[in-house]
Write a structure and sequence with these properties.
Length: 602
């Protein structure tokens, strides 16, 4: 071999050795870290997804000490992994080591992960220049969307200097139509959870156009360190088996845990954490710096029509439908003119009107004061204004000369007679409602009601869309029997109907429910037609009326009857008051009850 050939072989080897010596692995100071008692620090607990010091993610693909877990044991095994195989440790737990090195005054850079090609690709092409909290509005008649969905959006310029946005979301897929199986899997057994990072345009199109849901976007006030820690920790969750539970580990729980990496005070030890809770906690913790909303076409249509003065709405509809001259005098408020302009633009955007109507309207309503303003839609159905969705209630009951006390707990829900002004429509959603009745005379305690799942959606039609109103009930309740006693029954039912908005403050509806039940040792079918009305009153109050007939209960085709009238007041943010009168009749038996109640929201 010639000297030239020897040199040509040695030169690359020397350069490679020189490069490796210069790019040495960062040194982790074990003693210094252990002296800081890091295993007791909130940030370390959030990196492990602990609740009450117990891991919510128990997979051994995530926890190194899964068989004998403790925060300290996990810390020791994490450090041990780094000392035995630093490259593998950094590729597997970049978030943990980003945190640990920061505690010894050092900062890991992208080059420190050069030995991790997949992680490098993620770092380069999923920028975290800005991080946004996104709330997709609720659809109460959908099992997977009944309380909305919460996720993160990361955006910025990627390695190719292209502006991109990615959704970071945790969800489950519902593949069973069996309600009992769904309840068991969703609450007890657990469902497969999916943690994904994907192009935000996919979710934007899906929620706005396919599902008709608004997207509320809240810009987050985070430091560069916070954003990098969250970004690298998200990588640690990509191949982890995570169990999804509706009541204890859902999209809200995981998203809140990610935010708690930047703001430990965001952690909430609550019975159920909902997507709305995440938005409110983020606001209270000072994480939200700005907000904007993307309205679905259906919500946008309802906002413009419902938000304008009635005379202005009538004038605009006659102008569009009947080609009648526009009554400019109907638009007395600047806000009505702005909404009229935006409504016509919206109709033009979806192909429902011509540009000439926009030009005519703008010409007839022209005002320099108006045309220099923008319409603020961030106060329309704002999630931050919704009441808290957990409550404890107390009711004083007078029924057939008997006095008793009702005590109720609703973990995550809202009533039809509650404050629904920030929801898409008048609705009711009850999950896990428990109602006990205590007799003042005997002290006896009876389970009056146990609602596993109940939903009522009263969405009226508009010129652009048509909707069925829907009702679902599954649970235990007490019903009047032919001997005059309350009999415990377990029933499930489903109903369809229509709702009509006869006035901007008055909604009437009619439903037909079919179902089945078990009571008095009998299995029976049920048929329940129902009519009702919701009247929104002044001073934060409401009147709700319902009348229903039920045939088939106890295998008896005689009609049972129930009517109720509820006056409610919800002027306080954490307190609701109500007075209810209810009449029940079955065969020759009938009862009249009055209940004065107070509910505390939290």
């Amino acid at each position: 071999m010639s000297k030239f050939q020897t040199l040509s072989w040695l030169l690359p080897a020397f350069l490679l050795l020189s490069f490796n010596l210069c790019a040495k692995t960062p040194v982790l100071d074990t003693n210094a870290l252990l002296q800081q008692n890091l295993s007791s620090q909130p940030e370390w607990h959030q990196l492990l997804h602990l609740k009450n010091k117990r891991p919510q993610i128990t997979s051994d693909s995530f926890l190194l000490s899964a068989k004998s877990f403790s925060p300290r044991a996990e810390l020791l095994k994490t450090i041990e992994l780094y000392h035995s195989s630093p490259d593998a440790a950094l590729c597997r737990y970049p978030g943990r080591f980003y945190y640990l090195f920061s505690r010894q005054g050092e900062s890991l850079a992208a080059n420190d992960f050069k030995q991790c090609p997949d992680l490098q690709k993620y770092i380069r092409f999923v920028p975290f220049d800005n991080l946004t909290l996104v709330f997709a509005s609720e659809v109460v008649d959908s099992a997977s969307s009944m309380m909305g969905h919460i996720f993160l959006k990361a955006s910025g310029k990627n390695a190719k200097n292209t502006d991109v946005s990615h959704s970071i979301s945790f969800f489950t897929e519902i593949n069973s139509m069996n309600p009992l199986s769904l309840i068991y899997d969703g609450i007890i057994g657990g469902m497969d959870g999916f943690f994904i990072v994907r192009d935000f345009t996919f979710d934007k199109k899906r929620y706005l156009n396919e599902e008709g849901r608004n997207l509320w976007q809240y810009g987050l006030n985070l430091t560069e360190y916070d954003k990098q820690l969250i970004k690298l920790h998200i990588w640690e969750l990509k191949d982890v088996d995570i169990t999804y539970l509706f009541q204890s580990y859902n999209c809200a729980d995981l998203t809140l845990e990610l935010l708690a990496l930047a703001s430990p005070q965001a952690v909430r030890d609550e019975l159920i954490v909902t997507p709305l809770d995440v938005v409110k906690v983020s606001k209270q913790s000072g994480l939200i710096k700005n907000q904007q909303v993307l309205l679905s076409p259906e919500w946008e249509n309802r906002m413009f029509l419902g938000g304008m003065d009635k005379t202005a709405t009538t004038s605009l509809q006659k102008f569009l439908k009947d080609k009648a001259p526009l009554d400019v005098s109907a638009f007395k408020k600047q806000e009505d003119i702005l909404k009229g302009q935006e409504y016509l633009k919206f109709l033009h955007r979806i192909g429902k009107t011509d540009q000439k109507y926009i030009n005519t309207f703008n010409h007839l309503t022209f005002s320099s004061d108006v045309n220099n303003k923008l319409l603020d839609i961030t106060n329309y159905k704002n999630p931050l204004k919704t009441p808290d969705d957990s409550m404890v209630g107390i009711g004083w009951v007078h029924e057939n000369e008997q006095r008793s006390l009702d005590v109720s707990l609703v973990p995550a829900s809202h009533y039809l007679h509650g404050d629904n002004r920030q929801y898409h429509s008048e609705s009711e959603l009850l999950i896990g409602e428990v109602n006990l009745r205590i007799s003042f005379k005997t002290g006896a305690i009876k389970l009056q009601k146990l609602t596993l799942y109940s939903m009522l959606s009263l969405l009226s039609d508009t010129e652009l869309d048509s909707h069925w109103s829907k009702q679902v009930f599954m649970g235990y309740k007490r019903e009047l029997s032919e001997n005059g006693e309350d009999t415990g029954v377990f029933e499930t039912s489903f109903g369809l109907g229509k709702s009509f908005e006869i006035h901007e403050d008055i909604l009437v509806y009619a439903l037909l429910n079919i179902g089945a039940g078990l009571g008095s040792d009998k299995f029976y079918p049920t048929l329940t037609p129902q009519v009702g009305a919701v009247v929104n009153l002044v001073q934060d109050s409401k009147l709700t009326f319902k009348h229903e007939l039920t045939a088939g209960r106890y295998n008896d085709m005689r009609w049972g009857e129930r009517s109720s009238l509820i006056f409610s007041w919800y002027g306080a943010s954490d307190l609701n008051l109500s007075i209810k009168a209810e009449y029940r009749e079955y065969g020759k038996e009938n009862e009249l009850a009055t209940i004065a109640g107070v509910s505390f929201l939290f």
